[in-house]
């Protein structure tokens, strides 16, 4: 029984251990690395990515993919900067962004399910559309100087005398908690796993497959837009070339966190640790001081390979185990 | 038995598909507490009748009543709420979810707006205990063998509703012991008042478990019979609509040649990757050799080893007195072997390719990829086999996935016949195929043997084996128990050998 739980969450376990090992290694090697604020900065610097990864995790578990998220972030940044400059109420802007993200997700999900278009293609179209729309608004970067935005951006929630987090971190953690509950304890969440495991079976078991598949993209669009808002707190500007390739970082985080790209397996917490691992590698490279930040990509690439191989070995072992059981029976 | 209360009636059911009258005024009656077998060849209308009953297809005419009240089933979900549940042949559950979740997904009990996992696990455990299955329900479904998965599917169906249970080919992937287990459960459910509709190809099982039999043919009702009072031969006659003659002919064809014994293949003390232990085997030219045994006894492993699909770890394999080392499928093909695997869908056909391409595959592999067979030549070969084996298709450019199971099997046969093999290994070549095509395939096998081809034949149906094979090797637990030939071999002896687990 105990062993079963461990093997089920084995990869999550490996991910968390890896995170701790990296943190420990950084602490031993660099002066000033081992501090609460370095740890909290991982969350502060990656809050938006965590939020995006949570939404994307659901898409991946359902067996789909969403590569439009990075463009959504850029578009949300751009449009909110533009609207704020024109004197819109900041709260209305935020609501509008969430609505745009969700609607875009709905449209992509609808096309994917009802017209049987591959998710990759449908969301590629979305990616181009959002990215192109950024430059219709402006080809240059727009500064955000709305007082509500700057206040939220600069607000520090003190956890200890020398440790603080931003409001974005609170939002990100709330999203992770909500995502976890949804994945584990809601009918929708479990249906997402079922659809990812075997869509045809899910259908015959009476699950509303179409609705679930569309909802998954709505959720991803919503999270991407929320991530976009949080990202504009972080940069206080909008720019059309922002975050190119971010969707791949989010996908990589999910995979490192144990999500199978074939669907049916994965966890929200795993994806969060996936993001944090990427963050910590980045931090280590900054502390090292003499390395280009592109080494982060090299390190993440090797990790990805490692984890994909690991997943393969786990599932191969399971097959072997199954065959053994069959033979014994 | 006659006075049992009527549970479900279907009267004058008709259904037309474009160009085909799938059901024509069919009647069907299910009583409380009975197991009712629904039989017929492929295309007889069994599955259409089931689909109409479960709301997957709508009917064109007719009336259905459940417990005396007329019902009109709109969808499979509607059928479930009315009390009609189906367990399909291919298990329709999700392997990545836990056993308990598979039983309850879509209808999870909730507490405080969240899924109540404790309740789910507890109730799943109870449900499975009722079916005599005691397993850890929190493990994922795919960590259990197919038989258990089948039970989980039944548990799900039962928890949804408990009036009519439809089992569509539930035993096709179970071995004898597992079938027994399933039958026990079926009888138990009947005693609790449920009506069970049992669709199957295995006639022995029909007699083992059913109270009543309804036979369909070409979309029409042939009749409803008490299982006790309908002999098997008559039943087959009713299903295929022709006399038993065809099957009798096979019997006589076989007896025509029995003598000349020239060895084609021998193996000594073979131990393989597939866990075979110390197997001695000899295959003669022009004989049909049967491999008998239960599921998992080593039948498939034996042919896989001969064909080079499993590695040989010890012992000797020789073909025509030359020893073969490092056997691989391509070596085996070039030595003149062919192998139709038991898993037609995943190890046999390539669904997206045409019939012609499927037939040519093995021949092209044998020739090597630099000696391409021209399209004209390919078409010629395909058409020749379509005609020879009577494959029912509009032409050789059809995608193979559009053919019926029986015709797919014939294409696979054609694939190997095109390579002109000296030894053809057929693993369950007639599984899931209707009686008429079965008889045809058996006939082809015997004709091939007569022309001098050696054939290794594997089937779960003892009747079929006895009818086709001259000699049988009985296997159990990956070991050879013994050989039987001529008059020694009959069902009783083989069963006793397997049951006793010792050589005769």
Describe it.
The complex is a heterodimer of chains A (329) and B (504). Chain A has 329 residues and is mostly helical. Chain A is built from 14 helices and 4 strands. The radius of gyration of chain A is 20 Å and the shape is globular. With 504 residues, chain B is an alpha/beta fold. The longest helix of chain B is centred in the middle third of the chain and has 16 residues. The mean pLDDT of chain B is 83. Classes of the chains: A mainly alpha (329), B alpha/beta (504).
Determine and state the CATH class of chain A. Answer: Mainly Alpha
Multimeric status of the protein: heterodimer
Number of E strands of chain B = 22
- Inertia-based shape of chain A: globular
Q: Class by helix and strand content of chain B?
A: alpha/beta
Order of helices and strands of chain A: HHHHHHEHEEHHHHEHHH
Computed Rg of chain A = 20 Å
User: What would the average pLDDT of chain B be, to the nearest integer?
Assistant: 83
Q: What is the residue-averaged pLDDT of chain A?
A: 89
Q: Enumerate the spans of chain B where pLDDT stays under 50 for 5 or more consecutive residues.
A: none
**Secondary structural class of chain A:** mainly alpha
Largest sheet of chain B: 6 strands, mixed
List the helices and strands and how they pair.
The complex is a heterodimer of chains A (329) and B (504).
Chain A lengths: L1 H7 L1 H20 L6 H26 L7 H17 L4 H25 L4 H19 L4 E2 L3 H8 L2 E4 L2 E3 L1 H19 L1 H11 L1 H6 L4 H27 L1 E2 L7 H11 L11 H21 L6 H34 L1
Antiparallel strand pairs in A: 1-4, 2-3
Chain B lengths: L5 E12 L2 E12 L3 E5 L6 H8 L7 E6 L2 E3 L4 H7 L1 E4 L11 H6 L5 E2 L2 E2 L1 H14 L15 H15 L3 E5 L7 H16 L3 E5 L3 H7 L2 E6 L2 E7 L5 H9 L4 H11 L7 E10 L6 E6 L3 E5 L6 H8 L5 E8 L2 E2 L5 H6 L2 E4 L3 H5 L6 H13 L7 H14 L16 H13 L5 E5 L7 H16 L3 E5 L3 H7 L2 E6 L2 E7 L5 H10 L4
Parallel strand pairs in B: 3-10, 3-11, 6-9, 9-10, 15-20, 15-21, 18-19, 19-20
Antiparallel strand pairs in B: 1-2, 1-4, 4-5, 7-8, 11-12, 13-14, 13-16, 16-17, 21-22
Helix pairs in contact in B: 9-16, 13-14, 13-15
């Amino acid at each position: 029984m105990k062993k079963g739980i461990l093997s089920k969450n084995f990869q999550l376990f490996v991910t968390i251990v890896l995170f701790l090992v990296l943190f420990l290694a950084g602490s031993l090697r660099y002066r000033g690395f081992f501090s609460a604020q370095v740890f909290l900065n991982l969350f502060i610097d990656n809050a938006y990515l965590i939020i995006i990864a949570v939404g994307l995790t659901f898409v991946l578990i359902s067996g789909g993919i969403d590569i439009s998220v990075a463009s959504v972030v850029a578009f949300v940044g751009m449009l909110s900067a533009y609207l704020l400059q024109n004197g819109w109420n900041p709260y209305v802007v935020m609501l509008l962004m969430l609505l745009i993200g969700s609607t875009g997700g709905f449209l992509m999900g609808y096309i994917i399910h009802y017209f049987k278009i591959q998710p990759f293609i449908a969301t590629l179209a979305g990616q181009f559309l959002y990215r192109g729309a950024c430059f219709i608004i402006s080809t240059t970067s727009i500064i955000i100087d709305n007082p509500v935005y700057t206040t939220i951006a600069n607000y520090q929630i003190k956890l200890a005398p020398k440790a603080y987090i931003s409001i974005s971190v609170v939002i990100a953690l709330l999203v992770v908690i909500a995502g976890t509950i949804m994945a584990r304890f809601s009918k929708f969440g479990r249906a997402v796993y079922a659809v990812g495991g075997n869509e045809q079976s899910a259908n015959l078991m009476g699950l509303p497959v179409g609705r679930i598949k569309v909802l998954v993209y709505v959720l991803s669009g919503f999270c991407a837009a929320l991530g976009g808002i949080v990202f504009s707190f972080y940069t206080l500007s909008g720019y059309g070339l922002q975050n190119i390739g971010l969707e791949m970082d989010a996908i990589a985080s999910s995979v490192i966190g144990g999500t199978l790209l074939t669907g049916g397996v994965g966890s929200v917490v795993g994806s969060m640790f996936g993001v944090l691992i990427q963050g910590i590698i980045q931090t280590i490279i900054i502390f090292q001081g003499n390395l280009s930040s592109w080494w982060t990509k090299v390190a993440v690439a090797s990790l990805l390979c490692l984890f994909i191989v690991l997943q393969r070995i786990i599932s191969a072992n399971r097959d072997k185990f199954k065959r053994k059981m069959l033979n014994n029976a | 038995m006659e006075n049992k209360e009527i549970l479900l009636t279907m009267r004058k059911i008709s259904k037309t598909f474009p160009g085909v009258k799938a059901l024509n005024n069919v009647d069907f009656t299910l009583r409380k507490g009975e197991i009712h077998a629904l039989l017929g060849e492929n295309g007889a209308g069994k599955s259409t009748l089931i689909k109409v009953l479960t709301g997957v297809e709508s009917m064109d005419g007719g009336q259905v009543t459940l417990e005396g009240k007329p019902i009109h089933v709109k969808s499979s979900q509607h059928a479930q709420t009315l009390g009609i549940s189906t367990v399909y042949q291919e298990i329709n559950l999700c392997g990545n979810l836990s056993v308990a979740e598979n039983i309850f997904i879509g209808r999870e009990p909730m507490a405080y707006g969240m899924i109540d996992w404790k309740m789910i696990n507890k109730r799943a455990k109870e449900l499975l205990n009722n079916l005599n299955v005691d397993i850890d329900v929190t493990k994922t479904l795919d960590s259990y063998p197919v038989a258990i998965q089948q039970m989980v599917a039944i548990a799900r169906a039962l928890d949804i509703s408990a009036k009519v249970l439809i089992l569509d080919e539930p035993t096709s992937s179970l071995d004898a012991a597992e079938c027994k287990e399933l039958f026990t459960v079926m009888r138990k459910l009947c005693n609790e008042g449920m009506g069970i509709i049992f669709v199957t190809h295995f006639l022995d099982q029909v007699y083992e478990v059913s109270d009543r039999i309804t036979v369909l043919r070409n979309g029409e009702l042939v009749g409803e019979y008490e299982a006790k009072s309908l002999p098997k031969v008559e039943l087959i006659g009713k299903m295929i609509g022709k006399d038993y003659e065809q099957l009798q002919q096979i019997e006589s064809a076989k007896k025509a040649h029995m003598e000349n014994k020239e060895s084609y293949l021998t193996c000594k003390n073979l131990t393989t990757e597939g866990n075979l232990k110390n197997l001695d085997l000899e295959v003669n030219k022009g004989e049909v050799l049967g491999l008998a045994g239960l599921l998992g006894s080593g039948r498939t492993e034996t042919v896989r080893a001969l064909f080079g699909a499993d590695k040989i770890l010890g012992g000797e394999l020789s073909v025509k007195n030359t020893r073969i080392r490092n056997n691989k499928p391509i070596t085996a093909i070039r030595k003149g072997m062919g192998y139709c695997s038991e898993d037609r869908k995943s190890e046999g056909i390539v669904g997206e390719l045409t019939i012609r391409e499927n037939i040519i595959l093995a021949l092209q592999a044998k020739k090597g990829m630099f000696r391409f067979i021209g399209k004209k030549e390919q078409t010629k070969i395909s058409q020749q086999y379509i005609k020879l084996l009577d494959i029912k298709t509009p032409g050789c450019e059809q995608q193979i996935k559009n053919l019926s199971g029986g015709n797919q099997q014939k294409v696979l046969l054609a694939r190997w016949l095109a390579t002109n093999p000296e030894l053809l290994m057929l693993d369950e070549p007639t599984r899931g195929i209707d009686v008429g095509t079965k008889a045809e395939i058996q006939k082809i096998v015997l004709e091939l043997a007569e022309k001098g081809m050696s054939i290794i034949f594997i089937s779960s149906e003892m009747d079929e084996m006895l009818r086709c094979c001259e000699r049988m090797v009985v296997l159990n637990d990956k070991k050879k128990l013994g050989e039987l030939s001529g008059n020694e071999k009959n069902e009783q002896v083989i069963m006793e050998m397997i049951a006793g687990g010792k050589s005769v």
